[in-house]
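Protocol step 4 of 5: obtain the predicted structure for the target chain.
Materials: sequence only (see below). No template structures provided, no constraints applied. The aim of this step is simply to have a reference model before the mutagenesis design in step 5. Sequence pasted as it appears in the construct record:
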Amino acid sequence: MKLPYILPCPEAGECGEPASMGEIILFALLILGLAYGLYSLARKYFRSNE
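Step 4 output (structure tokens):
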């Protein structure tokens, strides 16, 4: 699996195709999902620590 173009590439030749709109949206959703998961975990943790 080649990484989409929006990620930094170690070498110019390794990028593969420029990312399509769908790939960019999927990648953004993945990051948002991870961020939301971490956020809710942190809220739970801090709430139980009070």
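Step 4 remarks: Residues 17-49 form one domain. The chain has a mean pLDDT of 76.
Proceed to step 5.
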